[in-house]
Amino acid sequence: MSLYLISAWMLTLLAAALIGALHGGWLAAVLPLAVMAAWALYVLLGRSRVLSSRAARLGIDTESQHAWVRELVHGLSAPTVAIADGVVTSANAALLDCLGRSHHDDPIVGMPFINLVQTDDRERVASIAVPVADGSESRTASMRLLRADGSVLRCHISALSLAEAPRITLLQLDTSADAHVSHRIESTGLHALVDRLEQSVFQIDSDGRCTFLSQAWERLTGFSTSESVGRPLTSLVHPDDRAEVDAALKRIAAGRAEPLVSEARLVAGDGTLHWIELRASAFVLSTGEPSGAVGSIIEITRRKQHEESLRSSRRHLNALLANVPGMVYRGLNDRDWTMEFVSDGSVELTGYEPREFIDKDKRSFGDLIHPEDREFVWALVQTQLAQSKAYQLSYRITDAVGEIKWVWEQGRGIFSSSGELLALEGFITDVSARRGAEEQAKRRLWFDARTGLASRAIFDDRLTFVLEHASFTGYPFAVFLVDLDDFAALNVRYGHDFGDRLLVQIARRFKVVQGPGTTVSRASGDEFAVLLTDFRLGGAPSAIAAAKDIVPAVSRLAARLNEALAEVVRMEGRECCVTASIGVAIGPSGFASTEAMLQAARQAVVLARATGPGRWRLAEA
Predict the structure, then answer these.
(1) How would residue 285 be classed by pLDDT, with cut points 50, 70 and 90?
(2) Which of 529, 534, 545, 515 is nearest to 604 (CA)?
(3) What's the longest Cα–Cα distance across the chain?
(4) Are the beta carbons of 603 and 619 closer than 8 angstroms?
(5) What does the pLDDT look like over 358-392, one tens digit per residue?
(6) DSSP label of 166
(7) Which element (helix H / strand E) includes 264?
(8) Residue 106, pLDDT score
(9) CB contact at 8 A, 213 and 228
């Protein structure tokens, strides 16, 4: 058409030019110009008609288009909504029924359509609701719409652009997907079989609301399945357990968690409390999209009551065993004497917690038996077990602080009906008071019974000797008096028993200053004394240090000791941090006696503590 018009225009212009040339004069110039003006006017008029027609199609008559679309939407039986620029322009009764809005006064016309869509699906709606030039194109997507009561409607939406109303898009809903999900269990033909199960089988949607419940639910809760469907599954869960179970079920229903196995309390219709075991896993559609969860509920009230009864019996048994002066055990028949159960009496007997023996990687009871007695113990027990007889024997053990104790043990093997040895059970008690009273008295002269450090008598004797010897030879030595900060407060807070065991742990940390020529003693309740005659441990070039090397060596040793003592002590599930104030007296000059030297160190402790915890101070001669 355009080629025809251009050809006609060129022929007309050529004819006008020939006529003007034949007549000459002004006609030769005016006639071609007149022809050009006439064609320009024709083109402008034609363009105006085209624009007018297009404007009418693009919405200048939008009111009539909306009216036509409104009649179309209300004439359809399927749930349908029309939107323009993302806003609802009309919706039929079928759609309002699906959304639970047929009896509401707040129509959705004029509302942005995405307000009706669950947040996660809004981008999907935007991608299909854009009008396209070709009205024949139809686009579909699965999504979730929000009902008036807050529940979710799963559906497929088909979007269609209309040639008669280009700016308007029709969205038609197919709710068969939601019905298919809701009745999936019933449609399998296994409904009757599921109802015969003892456990209650359930299905919930992504909001945690029940879409299916088997008959066992009525027997468990007293509520019928018809009145429970549509309600949250966790509505009957005990308030203390509800939040945790509800959150876990919603994560599974959204496909964001592994299958759930949980125990909770459920309140039945008559107010009785039941313990239940709830198992659930995600329900996934054939498209791979998560669509709620399925699972089972079984009552475990009797099991929980039995467990509580066992726990109560165990508490009574533990209370009884705690008052027995010794250690009750159950273990295996191996050379390590691996333990499966140890009573709390192990702390008093051995100085170790029961859990340290149960975890074989930490400590073996066989390691506590004196090396000279290990073969004797093994041989005697095996001889008695071979005859299925009880065994009784006495032997020595080494406790946590290195003290040797005489113990008496009585036990027997536990055999199966087929004669297989399953375990050893018995009782061990301390008989050191009866066997070895003289040896124990002798040891107390040399070592502190609790910490295993040198006794105060030994320390005083060595200090007296070193002071007298150094006064003739001039050899330097040092005394550290270590006083634990606020240790009395720990005794008050946790008890003296705990404080004594804590001292054992602290005494082990004096290893950082123990070397040749070093004596460490527990001077009093929470006070320790260190006699140092070899300064090489502090970095001095020789054991007998020069005057210029003594103070730096002492300073390094005091700092090292303070650092070791300040480390956190973990014991009996508690964490304690103990600091110490240290007074250091350097001999022999200026001190007439050991008492004078210790008194000077004690005054230095007071000055050190005044500057803050974990400090040391050099005493003045």
Answers:
(1) confident
(2) 529
(3) 159
(4) yes
(5) 876 678 899 999 998 898 899 889 989 989 999 99
(6) T
(7) strand 260-267
(8) 58
(9) yes
